[in-house]
Structures are given as C-alpha cells and as structure tokens.
Amino acid sequence: MAEINRLHFNAEAATYDSKHGKLNERLTKEIQARLDWIGADWASTDTDSGESENESSPAEVPKSAQSRREVRLLDYACGTGMMSKALAPYTTQCVGIDISENMVAAYNAQVENQGLSHDEMYAVVGDLAAAGGPQPADLLADPRFFGFNVATVGGGLHHFADPELAAARLAQRLRPGGVLLVWDFLPHGPIHGHQHGVMHHGLSEERVRAMFEGARVGKGFSLQVLGSGITIGSGNEAMRREVFLARGEKEA
C-alpha cells in the first residue's frame, strides 16, 4: 500500500496545489482560527506581533524567527506543505516527511521560491509508519527528527494501512506536552474510481480518540467538525466530505 501511495502522489505532485487550492485555503483559515484550541506554545501569533490576518501571507515565516522562542513542527505526509505553510508564521522550524519524492521536491522548491532557509523549513523522503520501523532508518534516527513541539498529519490518516501505528510513531517524536494535530474525513461511503491508496473511508471520533489515547497523546483530546463540510475536487469528480480537526497532548 505504501508503494501505491508513493506512485499516486508522485503523479499528482505537479498539479496538486492547483487541483486543491480552494481546499487548502479553507483548511488554512480553519487551522489559523484555532491556534488557541490547538494549544501549542506558539513562537508568536498575529496578536503577539500586532499584525492582522491581511498583513501577512500564511506561507510567510517572520524574519524575526531567530529571536523568538523555539517551536518546531513535524509535518508528516506533508505533501506540498499545506500544514507547514499554515503554521509556519507561528513556529521557528517546519520539517516535512513524505513517502513521495516528487511531493518532497515540490515542498522544497516552494521553500526555496519563498526565500526561506533550510533551517526554517525543509522536507525529506521517509516513511515513519513502515511496519518494520521508520525508513530510511539511519536518517530518521537522527536527533533532529525528534523533540518537536507540534506534529501534524493533514489528510493522510485514511491513506495509512495502520493509522494507529502512525500516531504512535509521531508521538515518539514529540517532546512531553507536545501536540499532535490532524485533519481528516469523518466516515463516508466509498466512491468508485477515487480510491488511490485509500485504506479507510473516513475515521469516527471514537476511533480517533482511541488512536490518540493509545499513542499517549490523548491529554486534552478534542475533535471539531468543520461546519457544513468541504468539497473535494471539481466537476464530475467533486465529492462532499465532512472534515474534522483533532488535537491532543503528549503525556509527560
């Protein structure tokens, strides 16, 4: 299944942002509106800096990052970096990991185009949820891939063969009190022709809660459904989905 996902997202990388631009924009706004609910000790917020939402782009990382408290984000199944870009203004470093080398290349190309340094944002090819252990083992055993304040999975859990294992592996990379944040779909029926490595037709709140608790990131668990739902795709391929955000903290 991991190989199916890799090949699919390799093929999608070049057009992914144009296909999902409205979805990414909506999710970015929903996430940024919930900074207090997410509960991380952010490096800064719009209130801290005195800026309004219209004064800075979600993809921009304030150049004063070096003088702020360190807040590191791990963006797993990062794709082209939607979660990283949504939370970059409030962190000092974003590190993406994805099984698709083309998605990682797109992520890093966008970082370079924004004029950001490698210290501020970068992505590597890897699979934290491999059954035999994270791969590549030598790379992901490096201390720089541990000790994060926040770990995210944006729309990836339903592609994983074992979402519970993925959550546990991410929890290992959080520091005590760190936050796991995910968005995904509530349960829905299968749609023929739209599988693309889909392993789970949505996840229930009960399953997500148990997943967080089993990974020992269930402290303060909360799940919020995003309004009336979100349209994925367009035209004949458009699908309406109920989307949730869930968060929990790593136990000490």
Strand % is 15-25%
Largest sheet: 7 strands, mixed
What is the terminal-to-terminal distance?
Answer: 34 Å
Q: Counting H and I runs of at least 4 residues, what is the number of helices?
A: 10
Strands, total number = 9
Mean pLDDT: 85
What spatial order of strands do you see in the largest sheet?
3-2-1-4-5-9-6
Order of H and E elements:
HHHHHEHEHEHEHEHEEEE
Please identify the structural class as seen in this structure: alpha/beta
Query: Which regions are unreliable across 5 or more consecutive residues at pLDDT < 50?
Result: 49-58, 61-66
Globally, the shape reads globular
Provide the fold topology:
Elements: H1 2-12, H2 16-19, H3 21-32, H4 35-38, H5 46-49, E1 72-76, H6 82-87, E2 93-98, H7 101-113, E3 121-125, H8 137-140, E4 148-154, H9 163-172, E5 174-185, H10 205-214, E6 219-225, E7 230-232, E8 239-241, E9 243-249
Parallel strand pairs: 1-2, 1-4, 2-3, 4-5
Antiparallel strand pairs: 5-9, 6-9, 7-8
Describe the protein's architecture and organization:
The protein has helices at 2-12, 16-19, 21-32, 35-38, 46-49, 82-87, 101-113, 137-140, 163-172, 205-214; strands spanning 72-76, 93-98, 121-125, 148-154, 174-185, 219-225, 230-232, 239-241, 243-249. With 252 residues, the protein is an alpha/beta fold. The longest helix is centred in the middle third of the chain and has 13 residues, at 101-113.
